[in-house]
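ZP: hey, is the adenosine monophosphate complex queued? I don't see it on the tracker
AM: it wasn't, my bad. submitting now with these inputs:
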Amino acid sequence: MSFEQLGLRTELLRAVSEAGYSQPSPIQAKAIPVVLQGGDLLAGAQTGTGKTAGFALPMLQRLSEKTPQHSGAIRALILTPTRELAAQVEASFRLYGKYLPLRSTAVFGGVNIRPQISVLRKGVDIVVATPGRLLDHVGQKTIDLSQVEMLVLDEADRMLDMGFIHDIRKILGLLPRNRQNMLFSATFSNDIKRLADGFLKAPVMIEVARRNTAAEQVDQVMYRIDKGLKRALLSHLISGSNWRQVLVFTRTKHGANRLASQLDKDGITTTAIHGNKSQGARTKALADFKQGRVRVLVATDIAARGLDIEQLPFVVNYEMPNVPEDYVHRIGRTGRAGNTGNAISFVCSEERKQLHDIETLLQRRIPLQEQEAGLKLISSAVDSPARRPQRGGGAAPSNRQPAKSPRRSARPAGKSYRPQAGAANARVGRASR
Ligand code: AMP
């Protein structure tokens, strides 16, 4: 299956090819024909599957095929749970739509509303928004939703987790009845099903990853470790194995800040991203991390939602999430778009219940990393925390260990979804650069 075969117009094919995509991902192959035909869609797709292009490409095509009834009116609305995801989705619309005369903008909180008002006033076709700020605009009458033809709820499960259900219902009530609807969700709770039943009309249902399964491209392991030794183990793994780009999850904002400054003290450049940081600080933290100016990004679950970092090789669950689905979301930050990744969990005795819930959800055990040798090193690292552990020293306790150097373990981004022998060879080739 190629993008041409999906019937996309040349402007979109050109943009997709320039983005380096050689073929549609499974979600794209399934979703694009449905959306092009104007049907409603209920899609079960994890982040990292290429779902954004799955809705953005056919939406751009449909929008460009029809002249709007009112020029400058908003014709497509995409709701996302977080600011980062809104910015990312809007960037995707820009990327894929760069050869089409359609305008898009992102509308989210945490930043001055005035520049958003002036962009909206000039007229845009596509708005990607978080629910709260969108309703602020509605309240100030700076946005007109009466001409919306297409609606997407992206990462709907997370929007419900974050308590946006009332906002979503309010927004649904402001839209014209006759419109095309799409709902994307990684998981399907009863609440999601109820929401979907309430606004989707005879939706086509598609699902690409098994429900609630962790990304298959991710090698998962866990360490059983005392709470007080976690930080030393993390420093040890990062320095000792020379990990270059590591996304670390903590449960709380305070914990994220504390860990970031401790790692910095250990000589590992680190920044934190969480909801108490201004939008400017969050954007800067993400940019620093993506561009390699810092090695570690410590994040809370909500802030990390929607982060798309190409070739992210390592995710560390420094603290296990209370909600098992969050584990799936967290590790889905790596192993994206056909790459592989490593997810390493630190589980202390108080986190047994979380681990049990996660393993029940996954319907599999997370392999345990043997750690005697590693622990000895950790204990000595605790004795003198400022000392940098020797490279390659002893933290390779078993042959199942994920803590190889990123050069060997993180397969680089081939932008193909085909897990073929050829692709594997290509990976080896690039990995040994
Ligand atoms: P998403 O699940 O939409 O967040 O997409 C995850 C990543 O996959 C993004 O970095 C996209 O640029 C990338 N991507 C999307 N579609 C394709 C494709 N057909 N081939 C390769 N990479 C893709």
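AM: back. The longest strand covers residues 218-224.
ZP: great, adding it to the tracker
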